[in-house]
Structures are given as structure tokens and as C-alpha cells.
Amino acid sequence: MSEHTKLFERAAARYEVPNLTTDGLLRRRDRKRRNQRIRAGVLGLVIAIAVGWLGVNAIRSTPPVPVDDPTPPEGLGIFAPVAGRIVYVNGGTDLSVTGGTDLGYDPGLWAVDPNGPSDKQEGPSVADDVASTLVRLDLDEDAVPRGWSSDMTNLHLLGWSSDGTELLFWRWNAQFPYEQFLYILHADGSETRLNKEPMVNMRAAFSPDGSRVALSGGGLYVVDAEGGRPVRLRFPAEAEPVGVDVTFSPDGTRIAYLTKHGVGVVNADGTDAHEILANEETRLPFRWVSGLQWSPAGDRIAIGLGRDPGIYTFAPDGSDFTKVISGGISPYWSPDGSQIAYTIPCDEYPNASCPEGSPRRSSFDPQPGDSPAGLAIADADGSNIREFGFAASGPWHPGTSDDPTSEGEVVLGWPDTNKNPPGVYSWDGSSCASTYCSVSAAGGFMHNGYGSGDVEIRLDVLPEETISDDGATAVTVAGHDGIYRRIDTGREEWIVDIEGTTIAIRLSARPGTSQTDLADAYAIVESMRTEAQDNNLGFRLVFTLTTNDWDSG
Asked: Between 196 and 150, whose confidence is greater?
């Protein structure tokens, strides 16, 4: 038995477990969960009785429902597993159509967690632990027309309805790629086709209320979301639409589209069409357009442009045209408008993605920091770029994922040097959340640098020597026996022995630190737990960040 373990046992025998902040929080949490279970049980009993009574009366008073009458599921239905995720197509082998395939998982329709891990493995294949975090969205292959691709790689995803219950896409015939048909996939798995005759170079967007779809391809049309004949909008010659990209304003009153010279805007009823952004060569390389997206707040429009690719944003009146991201195509806003997902393309093919395993890649897979092709996410102003090294951008589902602490959670590494989103993180002496971080086998450092910057937390592995228990109190840390002590004003520490490794968790706070910041730091320590891992330590320390204030820079 190590000297540290003996110390913890002596401390536990001498002291009663104190009523520290973390212990109080644990008891309140347990009491809250117990009360929730009791309330849920009572509510469930009441509902069961009510449903039973209503069911009996329904049987008495209503005719039977035909067996083949489908009842659509409640809520998000088949989209529930992809809530809050970015959906994209992992393409087939025909590079002229699909642009290549990520190796390491199957072709098809997939969803990536925007807070999930990056692929840091060299080689052409996505690492197994990264691929395991993806969610596949399976469509009904029986609904795919004969002669069309059955692995769902002949889809081009366009956007979600505002409530996340419908996905807009077009599908092409594998034998005749220019025969494109527009579809809505519903939460119950059924599909609605919107155009009877095939169209070419088609793009489309939902109206915010989901009742209409704007589509372009040889003109600009509006069609009812339940299907029907598309109605063509008429334009003056100077504002005639010529491009394929189209997007609704978030209030549904206007539609932005591409013109011969730039970007135009028209009222949703087809009136007041006018150009808002002209093709001025000094500022707008208006070629290779790769997406037009109105922000959720309505204050910016994003566009992917140029043979030297970049993403620009501008105000709805065309002012404040700004390049925010270099080397990116196909922008998609996050549901809250704070971030932009985009694709880092191939150098050789500047307007096409280069998935893992594609011949268009170089002979080895560049690592994060070296602009690997694939999905990337940045803040709306272009800062805090995070490169995934696989996948691609696509429509960002407006829903929220399940509790991150539930089964199937994504556990990231140590917070990196950028702004880290809320989520579950870990320390194992080596892994970063994405690219760079201050972590080693000897410990890790993070602080709320994107908040006040007043609080920092350090993990240190202590050498094999006797630790003084002067002023220490026995506590439980990360599910293990440990000790706690306040060193002085603004400094405190928890020391715990985990699988023979003694760790000091040290919290430092500047004078005047707010109680909110301290509570946030205490909550991180309280959330710590261990998981067995096949690494040098034999475990990893897992914890939760509930704000995006923390980084290791």
C-alpha cells in the first residue's frame, strides 16, 4: 500500500466528512433527482389512469382505424438521433459525382457532433474512436426509385425545416446525373417529391414556417411544401436570377439569390426584386459560388466564393462585405448563428471536398493545424477555427442532443487553446479536445480565459513522497478517497490517489473573483469521475464544462 493511500485512510479515520460546497451540491442533486423520480411516478400513474379511461371511451365511441393507416411518430421521429448535429453525405466511389469517400465507415447519410472529436490519426482512414461518434441516418431503401443509388449517396442535402422535422434534399438518377428531383424527408420516414419534371443545377430552401420551398434552376420558383406545381417568379432584366443558390430570410418575407452580377433580394411574393451586391472585381471574386445562407438572426448573409476559396458575410442591404474565413467552401450557420460550419477543400480541386481516402488527397492525411480537408467550424467572425480532418459541412439540425452524460456520450480530450464548447472532457496525460492544449502525463492547465480569466485549475501528478496532511480534511474526489485543504486566500487543492497515481487538483482565484466564477470551477471539480482506459495511467479523469469560458491557452 502506497504512503499516499495510508495518508488518505488516516485522514478518513480522523475526520468526519465536512459539509463542503461540493458535498452540498451532491446532496441537493440527489434530492432533486429523487423528487423528480417521485413526481414522475405519480404523474405516470395519473396519465395511465386517464389514458385508460379515454381509451375505453374511444373504443366505445369511434370506428376502428384501418390496420394500414400509419400514425406518424411524435417529435423528431427518425431525426431524433441527429438532433443538434451536422448532416452530410459520405459519398460513393464515383468521384465525378460524389467527390470521394471517407474510409473507416460506410458510404451513406451521416451526422457529426459539432462538439465531437477531430481525426488526428495519420493515414487515409478515419480513426475508429472518431468514426464511432458518428450517427447514421438510414432512409427507406424501398422508397428509392429503380436504377437509383441505394446507398443514399445520390443525395444533395439542402436544409432543415425550422422545427427539425423535415429535411430538404434533391436526388439525382445515377444513370442520368442531370435529372434532379426535389424531395422532403419527413420525421416518419416518408418522402414528398416537389417537382414532377426533372430540373438541372437545382438548389432550394425552406421558408421558416415550412409551408413553402424556394427553388432555383433555370429561374427562381416557389412551390408548396406539400407538393404541387412550382410557380416561377418574374424579375426585371437587371435583377434576373442566374445562379443556383437561394435562401429565405428568417422572417420569411424575402429571398436572397444569385444574379449575373452578384446577389439579389426579392420579396417572397415576387415583388421588389433588386440587386444588393454587385460584382466589383476589387472585392468580389464572384466565381465558384459554393453556398448562400441567411443567418438565423437575419443580420448577415454568408456566401462561399472564389477559385481561391473563402467565405464572406455581409448585411442584407449588401453593406459591410467581409471575408471571414480563408480556404473554406459551403457555409452553414449554426442554429443560434454564433458559428459557421464549412468544408476545407482540396488544393488541386478548390471547389470540391477531399474526403479521407480520396485520390484527390496528398499521399498522407495532414494533421489538424495543417488544414486537412473536411469539416471545420469557426465562430461567425472567423475566429476559433476547429478542423475535424474528415466529413464535410452540411445542414445543421436545429434541435438539441440528449443529455451529454447519457449512454453514448462523446468524451473529448483536455480543453484546447481555443474557446471550448460545453461538453464532457477528460485528462489522460495525452489527448487534446482537438488541436493544441496544455496537457501532459505530468498534469494539465486550464482557465476561464474566455470569461473573466480570474480562475484557473491545474492537475499535477505528485511524486512518490509523503504528503503533509496539516489542515487537510477527508473528502471524496472523482469517486475516490482524498483530502482537501485551503492553502491560502485564493488557493485550494484536492489530493486523490487513483489506481496508484496521486493527483493534485489545484484551484487558484484572483482577488475579487465573482461567486459565479467560483461556482463554475467548483462544479467542474464536483463533476470529475474516472473511467478505465488502456493508457499509461490505466484510467482517464472525466469532467464536464457547462460554459464555453474555459481553455488551456
From this structure: 196
454-507: per-residue pLDDT in tens? 999 999 988 866 567 777 888 888 988 889 999 898 999 999 988 888 999 999
Handedness of CA 332, 334, 336, 337 (dihedral sign): negative
Residue appearing with cell numbers 484527390: 360
Q: How many CA atoms lie within 13 A of 36 on its CB side?
A: 6
Q: How many CB atoms lie within 10 A of CB 549?
A: 20
The CATH class of the 77-387 domain is: mainly beta
Residue 550 burial by Cβ neighbours in a 10 Å radius (0-12, 13-18, 19+): buried
How far, CA to CA in Å, does 529 sit from each of 278, 297, 461, 543?
Answer: 56, 39, 16, 6
Radius of gyration of the chain (CA): 27
Question: Are the C-beta atoms of residues 486 and 494 closer than 8 Å to each other?
Answer: no
Please give the grid coordinates belonging to residue 136. Answer: 447514421
Domain with CATH 2.120.10.30 in the chain: 77-387
Residues in the chain: 553
Q: Which residues of 384-412 are buried (b: 16+ CB within 10 A; e: fewer)?
A: bbbbbbbbbbbbbbbbebeebeeeebebb
pTM over 0.70, yes/no = no
**Spatial distance between the Cα atoms of 318 and 385, rounded to a whole number of angstroms:** 25
Higher-confidence residue of 265 and 307: namely 265
Residue 448: Cβ within 10 Å count: 22
Q: Which residue has the cell 423535415?
A: 166
Separation CA 338–CA 183 (nearest Å): 29
Q: In whole angstroms, what is the distance from residue 117 CA to residue 410 CA?
A: 8
CA neighbor of 218 nearest in space, from 191, 244, 236: 244
CA pair distance 296, 276, nearest whole angstrom: 19
Q: C-alpha 71: how far from its chain's center?
A: 30
Alpha carbon distance 273, 238 (integer Å): 9
Number of other CB atoms surrounding residue 317 within 10 Å: 9
